[in-house]
Amino acid sequence: MASLAAELGVSRTTVSNAYNRPDQLSPELRRRVLETARRLGYPGPDPVARSLRTRKAGAVGLLLTENLSYAFRDPAAIGVLEGLALACEDAGVGLHLVPASPGRDDVAAVHRAGVDGFVVYSVPDDDPHLAAVLARPVPTVIIDQPQVDGLDRVGPDDAAAITKLAEHLVGLGHRQVGVLCMRLGRDRNDDFVSLERQRTAHFHVQRTRLEALATAFGKAGVDWATVPVVERFEHTVDEGASAARQLLGAYPQVTALICTSDILALGALAEAERRGLRVPADLTVTGFDGIAEAERLGLTTVHQPVLEKGRAAGKLLLAAGEHVNPKVITLETELRIGTTSAPPRTMEEHWFGP
Amino acid sequence: MASLAAELGVSRTTVSNAYNRPDQLSPELRRRVLETARRLGYPGPDPVARSLRTRKAGAVGLLLTENLSYAFRDPAAIGVLEGLALACEDAGVGLHLVPASPGRDDVAAVHRAGVDGFVVYSVPDDDPHLAAVLARPVPTVIIDQPQVDGLDRVGPDDAAAITKLAEHLVGLGHRQVGVLCMRLGRDRNDDFVSLERQRTAHFHVQRTRLEALATAFGKAGVDWATVPVVERFEHTVDEGASAARQLLGAYPQVTALICTSDILALGALAEAERRGLRVPADLTVTGFDGIAEAERLGLTTVHQPVLEKGRAAGKLLLAAGEHVNPKVITLETELRIGTTSAPPRTMEEHWFGP
DNA sequence: TTGAAAGCGCTAACAG
DNA sequence: CTGTTAGCGCTTTCAA
């Protein structure tokens, strides 16, 4: 840039202005500057140097628990991403996806990210990447989890939402239920879950849902300690199926499988079919999220507006500074009763005969 | 950082080393530095300043033609994104999604992006954002389109791939065909496409496919000038249906609809059903891409490895500098004959009786 | 093992 | 409308 200014016989300010403040320059001079720039192969102001000077990176960072690439396999995550991208687009800022695998504790990528703020999507409360984000002096908005005091957050009222679902099942007559849930901590436990582990789960959303289920079924006289809960580290349809297999293998008397996500529920449905169980006649299956495929299959689930979730988080972050008090946005959820929930076999027989 | 160094009575270099070169420091001193940093609320080296100094941003930019958010609605685009994210993750660099709507000619976001290179995915050859990317002194890899001399590119051999498809249809006996294609330029033309527009399309992939179809059907004695081609700006299932409606409304004698993407083909199938046309008995429909839903429905299509496409582009970019000559990676495609293609009605009658 | 000096490339005041 | 001055916060020789 210096050499450009020299060549033109003007100051560097003028060159800078030619790019950033067209109104501070005669159009003629500006034209000359730009043309000379092209001739000399000057590519325009360096974005990094500009960011350093203006203290604006023009991008927001996104941190998520899963492998970056995995986010593109989960329809709910894609919805969140889309909403967030929408908000960024409206504001003309970039979306910087931070590479952060759950295994690798390499936090450097968080430190290296040149961003004006972070959106953190569904990470455990003890995630080192999260700690690294919070250490940075930029605003942060959390989607779903964890809950951090003093931080903006966007998410559904998980307890209320799943309570409605539980009441639906209780109303149908289910008392012998089983639960399939997503990972409860950073350590892998593809197995049944102790009460202790449920209580101390580092994924707040899962913990809350389990607690709310325990309360709701407790009111119906079910001792939660007797309810089998199976956890899966990977969040895929196949793992959902394997979890269902594990649970039903040990507790064949279960009449309803409550899954904390639609993905897991899809797997449970597949496993039910494999075992020759009719849904909902022999087994009730429920999900959570309301992804498109679940709706297509008529899964009973709790629908949440994932796109809106991402967009709200983006807006909140980009408006940061305008508000002082931390904001919490609670999204509306809706219990969608599909064709995968019905009274348990025994009740059905009780009502309608065998 | 200066104040930290002062407080500690050491130089700034030492503080810097504490973060970046642990081996250049006594562990004891390093511990002291880091602890004092915490106490004073020093958040660690500023990433932007560091980038300025090291000339490394630790991120790659992604430019795509569609609205950022739209990329999350197209399964093929999601696949590319996933592959690219995978490559970035492996290298520990961020993925910076550049906001660039097709309408808005606001190129500033490209200038502002602090990245070490760009991946450009499927943009028209006259896209101003592309020009802005090329003006920047960083390596660039193109996925699919456009073809730019001297630039790395990853994509399928579109001509060869669609020629196989055309030969399949010719072999079945189709001579009266219609084409549904994606946008051919930055201007909106939701209508039939003249030969001139086909020839001068700014989206190289679409142009190539049309040309290859013209050649293949020409060999079979079909005058391409008589073949109706309908274009759609938006790439959605609904638009595919509307395009099919427009084409079949004007050319009901058509026996096969060739769609340049699975998304459009899905719409064509919907429209066929709406009209009471049986597929493939009354109408043959083909796609391109091989997305999951298409496979599920048994669509005859050309499958391409979208994830691999994204990953290859990422690797190529991140290895840039190691090679001098521009590299072109051609991906394998596979014609997948499903249940949506069959001999045309008249031929079928000819062979099997009415 | 540590420190001093020298910028990376740019823009925001402010003065002319 | 244009130029001067002063850093933004950091890392990297090189010398001690």
From TrEMBL, chains A, B:
A Pfam family hit: Peripla_BP_3
Domain of life of the source: Bacteria
A GO MF label: DNA binding
Database matches in SUPFAM superfamilies: lambda repressor-like DNA-binding domains (SSF47413), Periplasmic binding protein-like I (SSF53822)
Domain HTH lacI-type: 1-54
Record keywords: DNA-binding, Transcription, Transcription regulation
Identification of the protein by name: LacI family DNA-binding transcriptional regulator
